[in-house]
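Suppose a colleague, Dr. K., hands you the sequence of a protein chain of 88 amino acids and asks what its three-dimensional shape might be. Before reaching for any lab equipment, you can write down a predicted structure in token form. Begin with the sequence itself:
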Amino acid sequence: LISLKTNKFYIGETYDIQQRLVYHNDSSLNNNSTKVGIPWQLYLSIEVTDRAVARQIEKYIKNMKNRNYIIGLKENPHWVENLKNKFH
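The predicted structure, expressed as tokens, is then:
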């Protein structure tokens, strides 16, 4: 997700991305640090079939701590495929 207010990214994993987006944008439900970033918009979604793989990818992207890497994932679909292959 990307905050349209702060221009910061949120990286997470979920079974239901639309429900998660609604949660992050609902100030009455959202009690975590993403509340200050409302409104949030879907920036990039990486679909995998295994939740353990999703968590590994999430952790990897968070550990990169690099905004340009996240932007690069969206601009270079082969980076996403390489990332998925790395953890499969």
